[in-house]
Amino acid sequence: MNKIKKILAPTDLSDLSQAGVRFALETAATMGSEVIVYNVVGYYEALPYYEFEDAYVAAQVPTVEEVIEEHRKYLAGFLGKFFADVAAQAKVRLEVAVGTPYQKIVEKAAQENVDLIVVSTHGRTGLFHTLIGSVAEKVVRLAACPVLTVRPEKDAAKTRAAA
To answer: How far is CA 143 from the centre of its chain?
Structure first.
């Protein structure tokens, strides 16, 4: 097996996404790899809807660059708050983009020529999964490199107990 030199760790900054980021950072620390911790802001999150006159909206709506910079701060805070212990042991790069999350993740992996994508999965099933789909599932289907899905510890414990 080839050495894993670069890992992409997408996160939506949720508690559930911490499992994937932690696994990526721990793996990178062990293997001497680089981790790109990647946050994709969906279009609807980035550009809120306003029902005001155009001149007012133009003055109030943040630019895409401002949204990216704001989320870069959130991402740095997320990393510092939850992963300071392991992040210091790995080469880490923070990246933020605006777009459709699964598409941006797959594109970033190809652009960066990553060896592995590590993504948390929320483990949704049934109607909810059918209606909204799964970013992790789409990344698994579309990525050219291997994708490791990591379930949060609470979900994994439930699955083990049910088995």
So the answer is: 14
